[in-house]
Amino acid sequence: MSLFKARDWWSTILGDKEEFDQGCLCLANVDNSGNGQGTEMLHLAVLHSRKLCVYSVSGTLGNVEHGNQYQMKLMYEHNLQRTACNMTYGSFGGIKGRDLICIQSMDGMLMVFEQESYAFGRFLPGFLLPGPLAYSSRTDSFITVSSCRQVESYKYQVLAFATDADKRQETEQQKLGSGKRLVVDWTLNIGEQAFDICIVSFNQSASSVFVLGERNFFCLKDNGQIRFMKKLDWSPSCFLPYCSVSEGTINTLIANHNNMLHIYQDVTLKWATQLPHIPVAVRVGCLHDLKGVIVTLSDDGHLQCSYLGTDPSLFQAPNVESRELNYDELDVEMKELQKIIKDVNKSQGVWPMTEREDDLNVSVVVSPNFDSVSQATDVEVGNDLVPSVTVKVTLQNRVILQKAKLSVYVQPPLELTCDQFTFEFMSIPRVIQCKFRLPLKLICLPGQPSKTASHKITIDTNKSPVSLLSLFPGFASQSDDDQVNVMGFHFLGGARVTLLASKTSQRYRIQSEQFEDLWLITNELILRLQEYFEKQGVKDFACSFSGSMPLQEYFELIDHHFELRINGEKLEELLSERAVQFRAIQRRLLARFKDKTPAPLQHLDTLLDGTYKQVIALADAVEENQGNLFQSFTRLKSATHLVILLIGLWQKLSADQVAILEAAFLPLQEDTQELGWEETVDAAISHLLKTCLSKSSKEQALNLNSQLNIPKDTSQLKKHITLLCDRLAKGGRLCLSTDAAAPQTMVMPGGCTTIPESDLEERSVEQDSTELFTNHRHLTAETPRPEVSPLQGVSE
Predict the structure, then answer these.
(1) Fewest CB atoms within 10 Å of the CB: 65, 76, 100, 232?
(2) Cβ 489 vs Cβ 535: under 8 Å
(3) Does 234 reside within a domain?
(4) Can you tell me the distance from the alpha carbon of 567 to that of 549, in angstroms, rounded to the nearest whole number?
(5) Which of 705, 730, 755 is the last residue of a domain?
(6) What is the rounded distance in angstroms from the CA atom of residue 577 to the CA atom of residue 570?
(7) 218 Cβ partners below 8 Å, 6+ apart?
(8) 61-65, 313-317, 636-640: lowest mean pLDDT where?
C-alpha cells in the first residue's frame, strides 16, 4: 500500500539471541538532561520475573571518541514472592510528588509498592490469565482485559479497602472483618483478546482508553462507553496513540505482521510506511533536536530510529559575490576538461578496476592428482574411464557478510558434483569472480598422431620451436627424439587431435577431423608457450595467425545449429496440435460414455490410440532434438572460441578488444527456443558495425530492431560476421566508446606456408597464396558432418 519506506536514522542489534516483547522498550529523559518530563528526577524501573529494581541513571560527557558514558546506580529493589507479568505506575490515590508502582503477577495478584515499602496486594476476581494493565490518573483506576475478553476497570480506593490477598488463608470470620469484597467499576465486552492498553489524556477535560485487539482497535471513554472503533484487515503487533495537530482528534501508530506501520487520525488512515522488521513495541520521541522520531523494537532485538517522508535538505548554498562571467575563459576550461575526459575514456579498460582491497577474496586451488575413486556420474564414455578432480575454493572476508552465495560454472559437457553453496553468517550487493584452469588430462588422453586430417590451422611465433615433450609432459606416446615435434591427443568420446612443431621454421600446426576440436589444443598450446617463455625470462614472445579465416567451416556449424532449432520449433508445434487433438477425442469419448443411451464409438477408440502413439513419438523426437541441439550448441561454442582466438592473433588485438569479441559472440550460456544464439549474436555484431566499426556517420544513424526474434535463415548473420572481419582487416578498432576510431593502415595478411611435418608428411614446401574470405583453401572446404563429440567447449 505504501509508496515509501521508513527512513532509517539510526539502528542497532541488541544482545545476542535475545528475545523482546512490548514491555522491553522505554523512551524517556532517564538521565535527566535538558528539559525532562514528569517529576524533577526520573528513575528507571526494571521488572524481572521475581524482582523489581529501580535505578538512577547519570551521564558523563566523554572527552574521547567513545562518546558519553552512563552509569546506573541501584536505588532500591523488591524481591517478589510471585512471578511477575507486567507493571504500571502513577500517582495512585492522588498522591502528589511521587509515583507508585503496581505489578500484576501471573496468578492474578495486583501488588502495590510505594518506593521502598510494600503497600498491599489484591487478587482480581474470576482470574485465569494475565492481560495488559494500565492506570488512568483522571479516574484513579486500573484498567485491564480479563480472560472473559472484556475490559475491566477497578478503582484504586476499592483495591485499597478490599480484602488483603495475604489473608485469604484465614478463617471466614477474619476475612469478613478485614476488608470489603473487590468489585469492578465497569466492564465492556470486546469479544477478543487484547494486545495492549494505553490511556491518553491530552487535555484536562477528557481522557481516552485505547485498546488494541486481535482484529479491532477500540477507543473508550472514561466510563467504558465506546467512542469509536476500527476493524483491521491485518494482524496487529503493537500500537501507540499520540497527540494530533488537529484539535479534538488523536493520532495512532499501529504496526502489523506485514512489516507495515499505519498512522490513523481517529479511524482515518493518513499514512502507511514499510519497516524492515516486525515491531513488538513502538514509541515516538525527540532525539538530538529531531522531533517525531519513530523508535521500533523487534522480537529479535532490532532497534531502529526512523522518520517518515524524504531526507531533509540540510545544505544551504553560501552567498557568493556577484561578478561578471568571462565566457572565453570558461570555453578554454571546458575544452581542457573535455580533453581529459576523452583521454580517460580511451585509456581505461573494458572492466572497471578497483584499487582498494576487496571485502571478499576468492581463490581456487585445483588438486594436482585425480580422485582415487571417480565422482563422475557416467564413469565410462565408450571405452574410456571418466576421471574427476577436486577443486578447493577458499573465501576470505574482511567484514561480516550475510548469506554469501558461491556459484561454480564449467562449460558443458563438464559437470560438477555441487555448483551452489550458501554460507550463513558471512550485506553487500557485490559480485566477486575468480577464473581457474582445469588439468588437460581431465578430458584428454595421450593418443597416436594422425598423418592426415580434414582441418588444419597454423600458428606462427617469433621464437624457436619448443619441444612438445616439455610443453605437454605426460602426453607423449613415444620418447624417441624423432617424435619430439609430433604429439597426439585423444578426447574422451573418440575425437583425435594432432599437434606438430616445425623443425625448420617457427610454426606449430594443429589438425583434426573435426573443426571444433581444434580450439582446446590450440588455446592450450598458446597458454603453455607463454608460460614457458615467461619462465625463461623472455618478454617479447608473440603468436600470430597469417592464414585465411576459416569462416566457411564455422558457417557450416552455424547452419547445423540453426537447422536443429527450426526442426525443434516444428516438432513442438506438431506436438501441440496432436495434444489438442488427443484432448478433443477424450472429450468426445467421455460424452459417449456418460450418455444414457449408448451410441457406437465410430472408431474413436482407434483414433485415440493412434493419436496417443503419435504424441509419444513426437515427445521422444522433441527430446532427441533437444539433446542434439545441446551438443550442437556445445560444438558451436568451441568453434566460436577458436574463431575469436584466430581473429585476435590475426589482427593482434588487445585483451580488451578480445573481451569485446567474446561478449558479442558468446552472450549466452544456454540456448533456448525463446532466445537463441543466432539472433543475439546478430544484434551484437550489428551494434559493433553501427558504432565503433562504422564507415561513416550515415551508418551510425541507422536504427537497429529492438526485438530479438528467430530469423528466417542465417544469411544475414553470416554476412555480418564476414563484414566484421573485413572491417577489422581494414584497420577498424573495437572499443566501447561511442567515438568510432579512425581507420588505421594495416598490412593485409598473405598466404600461409605449409610446415614440413617430419615423417608424417613429405618434406615439400608449397606456397599457396589464398584470398582472404572468398576461397578457403588453407582449410579443407568439403567436410563430412562430424559426429557429436561429448567433450568440447571446456572452460579454463
Answers:
(1) 65
(2) no
(3) yes
(4) 29
(5) 730
(6) 11
(7) 151, 190, 210, 211, 212, 226, 229
(8) 313-317
Domain containing 513 — which CATH number?
3.30.310
Work out the pLDDT band at 17, boundaries 50, 70, 90: confident
91-100: average pLDDT: 86
Whole-angstrom distance, CA of residue 288 vs CA of residue 295: 14
* CA proximity to 554, closest of 788, 341, 779, 318: 779
State the first-to-last Cα distance of the chain, in angstroms, to the nearest integer. Answer: 49
Decide: 390 and 373 in contact? Cβ < 8 Å. no
> pLDDT-derived band of residue 154, with 50, 70 and 90 as boundaries?
very high
Determine the 3-state secondary structure of 405 from DSSP: strand
Residue 525: inside a domain: yes
Tell me how many domains the chain contains: 4
The model's pLDDT over 563-578, given as tens digits with 9 standing for 90+, comes to: 999 999 999 999 999 9
Q: Which runs of consecutive H residues, i.e. helices, occur in 412-504? A: 468-471
pLDDT on residue 323:
66
Distances (CA, A) of 256 to 141, 192, 230, 242, 363: 30, 17, 14, 18, 45
Helix (H, G, I), strand (E, B) or coil at 310: coil
How many whole angstroms separate alpha carbon 253 and alpha carbon 283?
9
* Cell numbers 584466430: residue: 646
Say if residue 87 is in the same domain as residue 227. Answer: yes
Indicate whether 449 and 420 sit together in one domain: no
Helix (H) / strand (E) containing 42: none
Same domain (yes/no): 262, 240: yes
Please say whether the beta carbons of 292 and 305 come within 8 A: no
Of 554, 615, 549, the C-alpha closest to 582 is: 615
Of residues 8 and 647, which shows the higher confidence score?
Answer: 647
Bridge partners, residue 540, by sequence: none
Residues 612-640 have a mean pLDDT of 93
Same domain, 256 and 403: no
Cα(690)–Cα(363) distance, rounded to whole angstroms?
A: 40
pTM confidence score: 0.50
Which amino acid, 327? Answer: Y
Residue where a domain terminates, one of 398, 423, 438: 438
Residue 776 confidence (pLDDT): 38
For 234, the grid coordinates are: 491485518
> Quick one: 424 and 454 in the same domain?
no
Shared domain check, 396 and 273: no
Same domain, residue pair 22 and 120: yes
Amino acid identity of 687?
H
pLDDT tens-digit series, residues 81-95: 999 999 999 989 888
Task: Tell me the pLDDT tens digit for each residue of 259-307.
Answer: 889 999 989 998 888 888 999 999 998 887 788 889 999 998 899 998 8
Where do we find the cell 477425442?
Answer: 585
- Phi–psi pair at 722, nearest 5 degrees: -60, -40
**642 grid coordinates:** 577458436
Q: Which domain holds residue 457?
A: 441-545
Q: Which residue has the cell 489524556?
A: 201
In a shared domain, residues 142 and 31: yes
- Does any domain span residue 618? yes
Partners of 136 in beta bridges: 141
The pLDDT assigned to 760 comes to 39
Question: Which pLDDT score is estimated for 429?
Answer: 56
Which pLDDT tens digit goes with each residue over 423-469? Answer: 654 455 567 788 888 888 888 888 888 888 889 999 999 998 888 88
Residue 587 placed within a domain: yes
What does the alpha-carbon distance between residue 187 and residue 395 come to, in Å, rounded to a whole number?
64
Q: Which residues of 267-278 are buried (b: 16+ CB within 10 A; e: fewer)?
A: eeeeebbebebb
Confidence of residue 772 (pLDDT cuts 50, 70, 90): very low
SS3 of the chain: helix, strand, coil, percent, to 5: 25, 25, 45
**Count helices and strands in the chain by DSSP H and E runs:** 11, 37
The amino acid occupying position 363 is: S
Contacts of 458 (CB under 8 A, 6+ apart): 507, 508, 509, 545, 546, 547, 752, 754, 755, 778
